[in-house]
Amino acid sequence: MKTVVPVQDMQVSAERGRSLLEFEGGVRYILSDVEAMSGLSAGALHVSDAPDAPPAYRPADFRGSRLAVPFIGGQGDAVALLPVLATIRDLHPGISIEVIAAVGAAQVFALSPAVDRVHPHPMTIASWRGFDAYLPLERIPGTVQAPNAGLARTFAAALGVPLALIRHPLRLPPLGPRTGGPLVVVAVGEAASMRSVPPPLVLQIVTALNERGVASVLVGHLDDAYRFPSRPELLDLRGRTPTVVELANCLRLADAVVAHDSFVMHLAGALERPTLALFAPSSAGIASDYRTVETLSSDAPCAPCGAATGACPLGHGRCVAWDAVGAALDRLIDATCSIAEAVPALG
Q1: 138 and 257, same domain (yes or no)
Q2: How far apart are CA 7 and CA 277, in angstroms?
Q3: Are 146 and 199 within one domain?
Q4: CA angle, corner 226, sides to 178 and 307, nearest 5?
Q5: Residues 148, 57, 16, 28, Cα dihedral to 10°
Q6: In sequence order, what are the beta bridge partners of 257?
Q7: Does one domain contain both 318 and 242?
Q8: In terms of Cα–Cα distance, which of 275, 270, 271 is closest to 259?
Q9: 292 by DSSP, 3-state: which?
Q10: Do residues 191 and 331 share a domain?
């Protein structure tokens, strides 16, 4: 059972510019994706330097009609921010919430019912005129004293938003019926990334699924290391789901998902798909906001280290309990088969 940490139980440091997320036992994990967001207002988007710059958003004090959300994080972080924006919408139902984001994250925010408008990043300084406040995402890199703190709760605690409910609403088109047997989406990254599932293990996963009568669909990066020819039970859609809607529809039609720490994992969790998430150097705690995601990580004393690419800094790569993948996959397959039998067509 997952441990859910209420926002009020978190202690967020007031020191800005920090990017350490502390977990139980003194283990520190550098949130590299979030660290890149540390210059959101004072640096990259220059909100505080803009003429007539709006003040930082404070839930209790906000009385305006337009809220700017400057965002330069990745698509996974964008998914994690959706519950915060949904809560702000509930607190101020009549305001206009407007996100400034690059193309990838902008696709995520465009699907959120809480977002009224998405502006391209970067915006000109003059464009900041007219906003009554901005969401101070530069506060996110901070020290959070909480084990298993999901990103949504981390974001909410850092921003002072009273997050009582975790939900990831998305506007997606209806789907027609799906025919055929059980289907599992398997996400792959770049083979050189320590976050990615190694190609030999991906092949083992696909083989194990096939032996149980479950077809597989590969999504993710076009890395030649993940090319598996002559596998008729495997549909290779890597690089063929370029939009968030296309990827979301693929996940919605699947009975389950196997993914590493990636945008696919976050999106599958937001869509409440049964998901096995395999964590290597990053912390499985960031997935605790997703109720349908089962995480698998290592108890190695060096994990999580936060490394994302290249070889293991210590030369051993024991940051994933690969020997436990088989048992976790069996549980997923059992659940997948029962789901497919109960719901042969998804709408």
Answers
A1: no
A2: 24
A3: no
A4: 110
A5: 10
A6: 185, 275
A7: yes
A8: 275
A9: coil
A10: yes
CA distance 160 to 84: 10
The answer to whether residues 326 and 196 belong to one domain is yes
Q: What is the pLDDT of residues 144-202, one digit of tens each?
A: 444 456 889 888 888 889 998 899 999 999 998 888 889 999 999 988 787 888 888 89
Q: Give the separation between CA 256 and CA 274, rounded to whole angstroms.
A: 5
Token pair, residue 99, equals: 């996100």
Q: d(Cα 309, Cα 44) in Å, to the nearest integer?
A: 24
Whether 11 is in a domain gets the answer yes
The reply to whether 133 falls in a domain is yes
State whether 218 and 135 are in the same domain: no
What residue ranges of the chain have pLDDT lower than 70? 1-53, 123-126, 138-149, 307-311, 317-322, 337-347
> Does a structural domain hold residue 173?
no
Same domain, 193 and 332: yes
CA dist 19 → 72, 158, 173 (Å): 15, 12, 37
Return the sign of the alpha-carbon dihedral for residues 29, 30, 32, 36: positive
**187, 309: one domain:** yes
What residue numbers bound the domain in which 83 lies?
A: 7-159
Q: Is the peptide bond before 93 cis (omega within 30 degrees of 0)?
A: no
Contacts of 262 (CB under 8 A, 6+ apart): 76, 187, 189, 195, 220
Q: Distance (Å, rounded) from C-alpha 162 to C-alpha 181?
A: 43
Got the DSSP string for 217-269?
EEEE---GGG---S-TTEEE-TT---SHHHHHHHHHHSSEEEEESSHHHHHHH
Name the token pair of 2: 């997952």
CA–CA separation, 305 and 142 (whole Å): 17
Q: What is the largest CA-CA distance in the chain?
A: 63
In the block, tokens 């915006």 appear at: 123
pTM score, two decimals?
0.82
Distance CA 195, CA 187 (A): 11
Instruction: Tally the domains of the chain.
Output: 2
User: Strands 28-30 and 20-22, how do they pair?
Assistant: antiparallel
